[in-house]
Design brief:
It is a single chain. The chain is α/β, with parallel strands linked by helices. It has three helices and eight strands, in the order βαβαββαββββ. It has helices at 15-32, 48-63, 115-127; strands at residues 9-13, 39-43, 69-71, 103-111, 132-140, 152-156, 163-168, 178-183. Helix 2 links the parallel strand 2 (39-43) and strand 3 (69-71). Helix 1 crosses helix 2 (48-63). The radius of gyration is 17 Å and the shape is globular.
Length: 186
């Protein structure tokens, strides 16, 4: 019986690359939103939350604007709950002024099928009525199953269905900042 081969892993974004991408997205948000006025960043757990905080920090560093940051748990809105093991509920934490009438930018690490974003849109409708919703992602790997497109993309990485994009962030992954592509042809 043959043993399975170890999956190959290729680093596609180092820590410094990741920082440059976050800086670029922050600049794009400032540009597209006229200085981030009336904007709220909502991170989708797990890695979207620290990415949202990093974006807010960079926006503040560039323009001195304080953009409120929150988190949006989408667990109960997922369409695959019955297909996977039970998940722990995350936190939904909205900024003190809420999201009503404000531009909400959802922040996530990887955009793949679009199902996570669909769940986030459902979750948003239960916590407020924003004036608009945009999407910022670190990596867009394609393979959409729903008609969803990101407004701000750090890097487009064409992938095969059997590959995975693994984002590691210092805040959640033992101090490591990188993006790896794993899997692929055996």
């Amino acid at each position: 019986m043959a043993l399975p081969r170890a999956q190959s892993a290729k680093i596609i974004m180092s820590g410094s690359d990741l920082q440059r991408v976050v800086d670029r997205i922050a600049h794009q948000i400032l540009e597209k939103t006229s200085g981030a006025t009336g904007t709220v960043l909502l991170g989708i757990p797990t890695r979207g939350v620290p990415l949202a905080r990093r974006l807010a920090s960079r926006i503040h560093a560039f323009e001195g604007v304080d953009v409120p940051v929150g988190s949006l748990d989408i667990t109960l809105y997922r369409d695959d709950l019955r297909l996977h093991a039970t998940r722990a509920l995350g936190k939904t934490e909205l900024p003190g002024d809420g999201i009503d009438g404000r531009r909400v930018i959802l922040v996530d690490d990887v955009l793949f099928s679009g199902r996570t974003v669909r769940a986030a849109l459902d979750a948003i409708s239960d916590v407020g009525r924003p004036s608009s919703v945009q999407l910022a992602v670190l990596v867009d790997r394609g393979h959409r199953e729903l008609p969803i497109r990101a407004d701000y993309v750090g890097k487009n990485i064409p992938t095969a269905q059997d590959e995975s994009v693994r984002v590691s962030l210092a805040e959640t992954d033992d101090g490591v900042d990188e993006v790896k592509l794993t899997g692929g042809p055996r």
